[in-house]
Structures are given as structure tokens and as C-alpha cells.
Amino acid sequence: MNEQLTIAMPKGRIFTEAVDLLRNAGFNLPPEFDDSRKLIIDVEEENFRFILAKPMDVATYVEHGVADLGIAGKDVLLEEERDVYELLDLKISGCYLAVAGIPDTKMNDVAPKIATKYPNIAAAYFREQGEQVEIIKLNGSIELAPLIGLADRIVDIVSTGRTLKENGLVEYETITNVTSRLIVNPVSYRIKDERISELVKRLNEVI
Amino acid sequence: MSRLFMFEKPLGMRDTLPELHEAKDKVRSSIEKEMKQWGFQFIETPALEYYETVGTASAILDQQLFKLLDQQGHTLVLRPDMTAPIARVAASKLFKDQVPLRLAYSANVYRAQQREGGRPAEFEQIGVECIGDESVSADGEMISLAISSLKKAGLEEFQLSVGHVGFVNELFVQILGTEERARELTKFLYEKNYVGYREHVKALPLSSIDSQRLLAFLELRGGPEVIGKASELIENGKGRAALDELKLLWEIIEDFGESSRIKFDLTIVSHMSYYTGILFEVYAGMVGFPIGNGGRYDKLLEKFGKSTGATGFAIRLDRLLESLGNLGEPEPVTCILFSPERRKEAYQLALHRREAGERVILQDISSVRNLDACSDTFANVVYLVGKEGVQ
Hints:
The complex is a heterodimer. Chain A is of the alpha/beta class. In chain A, 31% of the residues lie in helices and 29% in strands. Chain A folds into 2 domains: 5-93 and 179-205, D-Maltodextrin-Binding Protein, domain 2 (3-Layer(aba) Sandwich), CATH 3.40.190; 95-176, Periplasmic binding protein-like II (D-Maltodextrin-Binding Protein, domain 2), CATH 3.40.190.10. Chain A is elongated, with a radius of gyration of 19 Å. Chain B has 2 domains: 18-324, BirA Bifunctional Protein, domain 2 (2-Layer Sandwich), CATH 3.30.930.10; 333-384, Rossmann fold. The longest helix of chain B has 20 residues, at 18-37. Chain A binds chain B through residues 63-66, 83-89, 119-120, 123-124, 135, 181, 185-188, 190-191, 193, and chain B through 1-4, 118, 159, 161, 192-196, 199, 221-222, 263, 265, 281, 283-285, 287-290. Chain A: Its EC number is 2.4.2.17. Chain A: It is an enzyme of class 2 (transferase).
């Protein structure tokens, strides 16, 4: 019953909010947890093992079953389409995916280019709009692309809109809202069902 | 989904090296033996089939099929599973006298990977199909045989989750009114997206009782008490029949003495349209993916022109090996190093020992450059070198 649960946590912005949420749910996580540089942290008291991964990779660890659970943004789940259970909307780290570009510009008629960290989401979105676009995958600082002429539009995460504004870009369309989700490996969901159900229940009470 | 990096090379093709090959052989033969003891007959079918027949009938998604063209321009597929080819053979040849047919196979199947490695695109499945038996007894037999086979293979810790798509369908249609709306909701289950499922239910114009029924459906996981809980959600008719089937199934597995391995999970759908009744997945610790799955597919045979029920299951040999962990010690091999003048003696010794069941290599010593490495490689080394009597 009390098997260890391995939880993949996203490093960075979502991490703090996720840790707060777990603490609110009554899980006893040590104070040094927050600023540790370790990638694997065992919390023996709760019989948890946390692994700290890049947000984009959390769903991968969970799909392959090396982590039982994970906390991942809906953006990651949409982009990666991993075979995992999406059990709970944790309602933390809210933001949205949007199409942005230089104000008052039109997309190139012949071969409009879209720069993004999310090639699959961007491709699916423009296909639904009936527009043929070319996707350019970037790994960060997406705002640069339209400014220096790499792309007509970008598809990126927007939380406050400040980065866009400071770089003179405007939003054209909102694609979808994004919050963090609790995801579970399908085998763990069955084999460790009692512990996972309890965790879900406790989290659900504090969301 | 068109991704620029899709299919750049055949991802997921793997070699099986001697140690793994031997472990695989052992596991395969122990399972095959068990299946034969249960009266299942093994068959082989070709690796290539027509896309139009077996390809489209199979449960595997179109984008996972390896396709090629034959000389006449027909599209062919590398078989993505064995169920559809067996249904083809059964419908056209074997299933004649309305006597349930029990067939088995162990074969490589092919599924193209769309994204990355870490998963093989060619792997071996061992499985059975029971064709022409529409009773729950047949479903029970499948589950019992799956359990028995895995135990014979040496797997100790594993668990099966059993669902029933007939129940899901009936409940959803009862509440939502149409097949189409039921299908829409089922898609969330298929995609394992419970957050989306709940949001979708809450957005539907339903009475609070009905939306509560749909939300409570997600909790239908656990022991036999789940059947009782499920019957509170359903009104009557077919859904009730599905639950009666599950109840009977539980009794069958209890009689078989393995009910502790079974849990019910009515949220399992596995596929959007393939399965028609009881279905199950097999999980083992240490492996993040199901090691096997099965279920009833009463509509498949129709596609090949015979209308009869069928049920079966398949075990993924690669994942089973992974969950067994330790591959076990390889069989010891004796190496007889001989020089030409004692070749005959060496041959006779080898013959003698091989007959006694030992694995024996005959190696001309003149081809061995590093004798130390040679003696490290083999469990025993016998030198038959130089004149008689000198070892």
C-alpha cells in the first residue's frame, strides 16, 4: 500500500506554485526543498521521490513510467500528446497560448512563417483555421523572430503580456488557456491506485 | 499531424543479441506450452497483408502502419497485429462447423513510431484468439489463460484491469441521447483526459443528477463492489446486461482462484470502436506500459464475411521480458580446442557430449589468437592439442 511514488516536477516558474499546493494539501516537504539544486530529492517522511525536470520533459518521464506522476502545463500535454492520464486541473500557473506579431501587419500570402516552441500546437491551430503556414521551431526568446524578420507571427505562452509589450508586439488571437495538470502513468494509475487516489483526493480539496 | 521530423528514418528497429534471444526463447516456449495445454493451436500468417483488408480492419491507427506497394500497385501493410490476420484466416478457411475455434500465435508485428525511440517499431506478440464463442465463459477463459501464461513465464507481480465498453456506451447513450454525443464523451476517456471529460460534462445541458452520474462514472474502479456502484448509475436494459456479464466473469475468475489479480476499471476503453464487450489490460511493476491486453471484438469477423463473436489477448514479449528483469544465466558452453592431428577425437568427444545435452563448440585452435580471452568466454575449455595424451 505504501509504495514509493515518484513525482516529476517542472523546474522553474511552476515549481514553487506546485510545491505550495502540495504543502497546502498537507504533505510535509522539507524547507530546503525549494532551493535545492539536486535533480532527485527523496522525501522519506512521505515516501515520495521528486525528480526535477524541464517542464517540456515532465510528460515524457511519466509516459515511460520512470515517474508515476507529474505536474505539467496543458501546453506541454497538447504539444507532446503523451499517453498519460490527465487527472486534475491544479489551476496553478495560469496563462494562455496566443498568436502574436508586429501591430497592423498581415501574414505573407505565399508562405506565412510562424515561429514557436510549440510546432504541433501551432500547426494544428492554423490547420483548423484553414491557413497553410510554415512552422519554424525555436527554443526560446520567440519574440525575436518577427522583430528581425524570421517569421510573420509567433505562437507562444502569454502570462502577463509584458514581454510582448516591451518588444512592441501585439496579440492577434488566443488559442487556448493553460494551467498545470496532474498527470499519471497508466500502469502506476492501476498498480499504485490507492496511494494515487489518496493524493488526488487531498489535492482536490485544496485546489 | 504533419511533423517535419516524422519518419525521417525507420525508428525503433532493434537487434536481438544472443543473451536476450535465449531469454526470449525460454519465455516464449513456456507460454506456448501453456497455450497448447489449453488446446490452442498455433498458426502463422504472412508478414505482409493488403491494406484494404487486414490493414483497415486492424485496431492499430492508420498512421502507425508501415505501408508499401506491390507490383500491381496494391497497398500492402506489415501486419500491425495478429488479430486481424487470424480473423481473415478463420473467416475464410477454418471456422466452418460452428465449433468455437481456438488459435494461437507468436509473431513479430510492426508499428511505426511517430516521434522518438524508446519504443520498438517491431516486436513480438504471443497471443490467442477464441473465435465463435460469444459466452462470458470465453472471456473468462482468456483472462485465466493470460494469468496462467504469465505465471508460467515466471512473472509474479502483475495485475489485470477489466472493463466493459458495452456498459460505457449504454450509460453514455442513456444520458446523452445519441451515439454521436456518447462518442464525443468517450473520446475523452480514450485520450485519458479526465480534466477534459469533467469540463465537457459540466458544459453539457444536463440535469444535475445526470451530470453527477457521468462524473461518478470516473470513480468506477476497484474490486467487485464496483459492479454494485455501476448499477446505481444505469437505468436498465443493455447496461445492466453488461454488468451481469462482469459479475459472471468475476465468479469465473474466482472459481479459477485468481480473483486477487483482477480489478475492475470501467473507464478503460482502449480503442474508439474495436472492442465490443469485456476488455482488459495487463500491468506489471517495473514497466511503464501495459504488458498485454485483450478483449471481445464481435464485429471484426463481419469485415471478413463471417458473423460471429470472438475474444482474445496478446502479450508483448519485449515488455514481459523487461518486467521479468534478470535475464537469467545463459546456458554454459564448452569449447573444445583441437589441433588437426586430434580432430577425429575432438569430433567424437563433441558428439558424445552434445548427445548428453551439453552445448559444445568445436574450435580449431589455429584460429584462436587470444587463448586467455577464449577461456574467459566459455564455461569450460577442453584442449585436444598435440600428441595423444597431452592435455
